[in-house]
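Session log. Operator J.P. requested a structure for one protein chain; no other inputs attached. Running the standard single-chain path with token output.
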Amino acid sequence: MAKEVASNAGVIYNALTNGSKIVGKIVADSDFRIDGVVEGEIICSGKVIIGSNGNLKGSISCQNAEIIGNVNGDITVADTLTLRSTAIIEGDVRTKILVVEPNAVFNGTCSMRESVKVKDGE
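Structure written below.
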């Protein structure tokens, strides 16, 4: 179930917990962490984290992203995309900065530009 969580630093972010599933479009103004399943589109003004149990079948458009789980779809990131060692990406990537840890799986194309335009929520 999606909920807002206050972290220790006092920053509020949204979360989809393990065992939850959303089908459709997610629009978020603040950071969003996915530990469940999303089938659709994520548009976020902040950072998107796909956790180790997270699974996305769709697209991401955001400021920053950290992928620990699975993404099957296109990713557009205005600043930094980080693929952790357990990440599995099947799709095309557009980003300014790409960080890939050893053992991450990335099958697709990557386009890196100084400036990347991301979707807004409208």
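Operator note: Residues 2-108 form one domain.
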